[in-house]
Amino acid sequence: MAMKNQTYSTILLVVYAVVATVHVAAELQLFDHLPTKADGSLDILVIGDWGRRGLYNQSHVAHQMGKIGEKLDVDFIVSTGDNFYEDGLIDEDDSLFDESFTQVYTATSLQKQWYSVLGNHDYRGNVLAQLSPALTQKDSKWLCLRSFIVNSGIVEFFFIDTTPFQDKYFTETDNKYDWRGVLPREEYLSNVLKEVDMALKESSATWKIVIGHHTIFSAGSHGNTQELIDRLLPILEAKEVDLYINGHDHCLQHISSQNSQLQFLTSGGGSKAWRGEVNQWDPNEMKFYYDGQGFMTLRVTEGDISVAFYDVFGEIIHTWSNTKYTHMDS
User: What is the pLDDT of residues 46-89, one digit of tens each?
Assistant: First the structure.
């Protein structure tokens, strides 16, 4: 049952000596995960499209994530979806969870909280199993929900369930999707958009970052997602969102909007990549495209945000940063 703004439920999540509280804001669950470093900065890793039992360089990417995670002393990890290939999880006891997650991301630095969204491949399996608290009992760092918010004080992360937005998944016959909790579809989508719009409006964070599995804009094989361009993008632009981070295309990518401050960042290189399908793009917008495996880091302070993309060898292959003048600068 949806809970109203005035109602709060407190759940303690003890993960790697961090206590996070969860309550409901604009009907989306909100997790407080505040910076713990003395300077107030926040460091996170972002990985997407990964769960293949360590194959297709997943284990190599995980190894480099562990090294960089230790160097940066990361606060948490974000997964942009397609967590388990090819068809999600069968049930809560599916060995794919352990073999693709727990046994792969073994570095001490990666035993922080993971915040994950669902991808289209996850919807091909038992969605409720992947969302189940039983998986968190198996591995305490795991958390996957449909749409939710992580509040880190200076920055808020808005996670959105993007798969139900795409029309083609409801008409294709090659794959079956688990739409429990989504139907009736239009009501579900309208509620998601309303809740995200309200949460962004109410946010007082210096930085606003939206995370979903599907691309809004991409030069990769999947290309743009027209349904998100039509329905989600206007909200992001109106509410002055800083970053939209996604997976879906198995690449690393940075597209800069010419219409707003929005940056579109793809981190979908967690395992199988090198598709060799890159579409032409306006060079004034396309800042970076890499067809191979890797991951992304994000560092946020009160006045600055910086992004770095790493390849499978742990080498930095692209960086970007931005500065905001806040009340603290006066």
Answer: 999 999 999 999 999 999 999 999 999 999 999 999 999 999 99
**In the structure encoding, which two tokens stand for residue 181, read together?**
């909790």
DSSP string, 151-211: E-SSEEEEEE--GGG-GGGGT-SSS----TTT-SHHHHHHHHHHHHHHHHHH---SEEEEE
Judged by DSSP in three states, 307 sits in strand
- Dihedral of CA atoms 210, 212, 214, 215 in degrees, nearest 10, equals 20
Q: How confident is the model at residue 27 (pLDDT cuts 50, 70, 90)?
A: confident
pLDDT computed for residue 286 by the predictor:
98
User: CA-CA distances (angstroms) from residue 307 to 160, 202, 294?
Assistant: 21, 26, 13
Q: Which residue has the tokens 């198995």?
A: 250
Q: What are phi and psi of 64, to 5 degrees?
A: -70, -35
Give the active site residues: 222
pLDDT for 130-157, tens place per residue? 999 999 999 999 999 999 999 999 999 9
Residue 35, judged by CB atoms within 10 A of its CB (0-12, 13-18, 19+), counts as middle
Backbone φ, ψ for residue 179 (5° rounding) = -95, 15
